[in-house]
Glycosyl transferase
Amino acid sequence: MKNTLIISLDFPPTIGGIASYVEQIAGEFPPENFVILAPKTKNASYDDKFSFTVERFNLFFPKFLAPRWLRLYFIIKKLVKKYGIEIIHLHHAAPVALAAKRIKKKLGVPYMIFSHGTDIAAASKGKWGRASLIDACIQAEQVITNSNSLDRRLVAQFQTLENRTTVLYPCPDKSFLTPPEQEKVDKLKSQLALEGKRVILSIARLEHGKGFTNLTRHLPAILEEVPNLVWIIVGEGSQKQNLLKMVQKYSLQNIVRFIGHVPHDEIKTYYYLSDVFILLTHPYQGMEEGLGLVFLEASATGIPMIAGMSGGVEEAVIHEKTGLVVDTYNETQVKEAIARLLKDEKYASALGKAAQQRIIKDFSWEKQLEKLRPWMFEE
C-alpha cells in the first residue's frame, strides 16, 4: 500500500462530518502507511489515542503575507520527504490544492481531491477561483465525491470532470449500531431534566444551511401540537448568539437545551435518549450538503429522522422509507412530520429500523474503500 498523506482543515477534536470522515478513513488502513496533516489544537495530547501519525502545524501564513498557502507547501514538502509519501489526499479544494499542485510539479507526488460539497462551491466563486479549481481538479488523479448528487453537480458545473470522479459514501462508526449502557442514558436524561418529555435532537455546527433558525421559528406552532417537547442542540458555531436571541424572542428558554461541544465518542448517548433526530438542512448561497454524515450516524442508532431538502441529503434519508424529508421553510410540513413521528410510534420505529438495516447493508468502510484501490495500492 502507498504511503499516504491526508490533509484536512477539519479534524478531531473539531466536530463535524468532514472531521469524522477523515478520522475514520485513516483508521481503516494500516497505520504505518498513513499520516494526517491538520491544524494545531490546544490539546497537545489529544492525538495520542490514534494508531496513525498526526502532524499539526499552523498551516497558513498570516493574512498580511501572500500567498498564505506557501507555508503549507513547505510543510507538505517536509512531510513528503520525512515519511516517503507517495500520494496525497486533499479534503479541501482551496487553497490546499494550490500547494499540492506545486508539490506534484516539484516532487512528482500525485494528489486526489475529496469534495464534501461546500468546499467546491466556495472555491469556485469568482473567475480566478473557478479557473484555479478546474486546473487543480484536472491535475488530480481523481476527484472523490461523497454523494451522487454532489457528483452530478460537479460534472454539470465543470464538464472537464466527466469520467474523473468517484462517489465514496461516508460511513458511520460501527459503535453507533450498539446502544450505550442504559444507566448512562438514564443519567444523562436526569441531568437534562427530560423526564416525561418528548425529545428532538439536532447535532451539527451552528452555521447557515443547517436550519436552526428555521426550526426555532417553527417551534411555537409545533409546541401547540406537542406541548411536552424539548429540543436538544449539540454543537458550536458562529450562529449561536443569533440562536440564543431567537430563543429569547420566542420565549423558548425552557424548551431548547444548548449542549455545546460534545466529544465524538460521547455523542452516541444523545441519539439513544432522543425520540427524533432532526436537521432542517437547506441550500445557502449556492452551497448544499454533500450527504450529511450525521444522518448516517442517526440511522445507525435506529432513531427516526427528519431532514431538510438539500443536495445529497435525500440519499442519506430516503423519504418515507428510512425517514422523512421536508421543505425546511414549510412550517406545516415540519410540524406535521414531527407530530407524526412522535405520535405514531409504530411508524417511527419502522423507519428507524429500516434506516439501521440500510447502514448495515450498504454503508461499511470495507465496501466503500475498495473504490480507492486503483490509487492506493501498487498494482
In short: The longest helix spans residues 345-362. The radius of gyration is 21 Å. The chain has a mean pLDDT of 92. The CA atoms of residues 258 and 356 lie 27 Å apart.
